[in-house]
Design goal:
single chain, alpha/beta, Metallo-beta-lactamase, Chain A, Serine Threonine Protein Phosphatase 5, Tetratricopeptide repeat, 3 domains, six-stranded mixed β-sheet, 14 helices
């Protein structure tokens, strides 16, 4: 496995180019996250260059310079592994080469959805990745060639076989070059716990993800380039993929079995734990996504919001329930003290939800916000998962701003 570097600037002065073969180059790029990176790769042929994932717009100019240093051949194709902006954002840099841009047909509705929900997307990005991205101003290069199941072409003596897979998204394209025994997997190959779900986005696909990885293994590749991992030998590929396949199938099967038994989401999140060999695997560290998000995502795919209780059919706003509980207690000091005790006992999530008895009704309650700030500070300092940690950090900063001068 190539070493994943930390602290790579989004707009680097110089790129570290990895020569994976006589023809294949890749570079690790960073858009905004220290726990998840995106590789931009290109394949050199004597008839032109094929870029696989254009990467972020901040790094693409340097990639273009590097390609020009090594060859005077034009960039003939850009292949999108999927439509996330850290994989397609750099495409406008290459338009002067007039390349064909290839992507799965589901990329089109994805980009249309980004435009439709641009304001929501901007709000979510500010929380999830702590960046204010100009979503409305983004310019997307749409594919000039789309396909449904498979697509292939030849260039400079190499065959590029594209096939569709689902997993992190529904628009993934995998690229197999049989002459080089190399496969490009996009974010279906990750160096940590697979991004099988998060609280902010649409569903992922656990079963299809496992099936796609099984299809890749059947190709018997010697080189696998992913979204934030590059595996450089067949044994490593087999071990890494089989571990991910086991995890994906275990989680999907466990959630479906629990649903068939009449268990609700809360019971699933509490009861479905990973086997120790998966929980402790260095390849499945929950530094970007996490077990709870994956369970919620699978449940959301197959089940409605009904939780096998009559009160869940037409639930009232949480602020109303909080108001009833607050009135019954009749003593905010008792609520605040309980939250403090839970904080000191290390029950941070329960402490947060206890404070909601006040904050759902009176969000500007200074005493409750002070305690919440401490809880969020502790969570932000101890949580290794980027997506949940950024939530704690975002609302901690909101509390800090609110409490200034109070």
């Amino acid at each position: 496995m190539l070493e994943r570097k930390q602290g790579i600037p989004p707009a680097p002065d110089k790129l570290e180019i990895h020569k994976l073969s006589d023809s294949i180059r890749t570079v690790q790029c960073n858009l905004f996250q220290e726990s998840h990176y995106a590789y931009t790769s290109w394949v050199l042929t004597d008839a032109g260059v094929v870029i696989i994932d254009a990467g972020p717009d901040t790094a693409a100019p340097r990639v273009k310079e590097e390609i020009a240093r090594e060859t005077d051949q034009p960039i003939k194709y850009i292949i999108y592994s999927h439509g996330h902006i850290d994989h397609i954002g750099g495409a406008p840099v290459y338009v002067d080469h007039h390349p064909e841009v290839i992507g799965h047909e589901n990329i089109i509705p994805r980009l249309e959805r980004y435009k439709l929900t641009a304001d929501y997307f901007s709000q979510i990005m500010a929380i999830q990745i702590r960046q204010n991205l100009p979503i409305k101003q983004m310019s997307y290069i749409y594919p000039t060639i789309t396909y449904r199941d498979n697509y292939s072409f030849k260039l400079g003596g190499l065959t590029f076989e594209l096939f569709h897979g689902k997993g992190e998204t529904d628009d993934h394209t995998l690229v197999w070059i049989p002459e080089l025994k190399a496969v490009f997997c996009g974010d279906l190959l990750e160096g940590s716990f697979p991004n099988l779900g998060n609280p902010f986005k649409v569903m992922r696909y656990a079963r299809e993800w496992a099936e796609t990885l099984e299809r890749v293994l059947a190709l018997n590749p010697d080189l696998a380039i992913g979204g934030d991992a590059v595996l450089t030998n067949n044994q490593e590929i087999n071990e890494h993929f089989k571990e991910n396949i086991e995890l994906l199938r275990y989680l999907e099967d466990s959630v479906i079995d629990a649903a068939n038994q009449g268990k609700n989401l809360e019971q699933m999140i509490e009861g479905i734990q990973l086997p120790s060999h998966l929980e402790n695997s260095p390849n499945l560290r929950q530094i970007y996504s996490r077990r709870e998000f994956a369970i919620y995502n699978i449940w959301k795919r197959y089940c409605g919001y009904f939780d096998f209780s009559a009160s869940s059919v037409l639930p009232r706003p949480k602020r109303e329930l909080a108001s009833v509980a607050r009135d019954l207690i009749g003593n905010d000091e008792a609520i605040l003290k309980k939250a403090e005790n839970l904080y000191h006992d290390g029950q941070l999530q329960l402490a947060l939800e206890t404070l909601d008895l006040i904050l759902k009704v009176e969000y500007e309650n200074v005493l409750a916000r002070r305690i919440r700030q401490k809880i969020l500070e502790k969570l932000a300092d101890t949580d290794i998962c980027l997506m949940s940690r950024n939530v704690w950090t975002y609302y901690r900063d909101e509390d800090n701003k609110f409490l200034e001068g109070k």
